[in-house]
Design a protein that fits this description.
The chain is mostly helical and 104 residues long. The protein has helices at 3-15, 20-36, 44-56, 64-67; strands at residues 60-61, 70-71. The longest helix is centred in the first third of the chain and has 17 residues, at 20-36. It is globular.
Length: 104
């Protein structure tokens, strides 16, 4: 893929990013689901794998979200990478089963 093709893909992705209200609704529903599962995060290895994949992606904007990085496809930041049931919107990494912690 040429540099111009990559620039065009990024431009199109930015134009098609979800609107702020859509992102708020999606994030709220995701956090509610995550809370119900006990806020269990993915393993450090899974998180690091997801970070590496995102940072190598043509849709990742390192300077977005105050320097935390931002996906130009879904608008997410690194926080999403810690949530087991989340997945990449273009299929570069998948979700994991949500299993609440065992009762003590």
């Amino acid at each position: 893929m040429t540099r111009e093709e990559i620039k065009e893909r990024v431009r199109l992705a930015m134009a098609s990013q979800p609107k702020t209200l859509t992102k708020i609704r999606s994030a709220s529903a995701s956090v509610a689901r995550w809370a119900k599962a006990g806020f269990v995060a993915v393993s450090e290895k899974t998180y690091n794998d997801r970070v590496s994949i995102c940072e190598a992606c043509e849709f990742w904007q390192p300077s977005g979200n105050l320097g935390m990085g931002k996906c130009l496809k879904c608008g997410c930041a690194r926080g999403k990478l810690k949530i087991p049931h989340e997945r990449c919107p273009i299929g570069k990494w998948d979700s994991e089963p949500l299993t609440p912690p065992a009762p003590v």
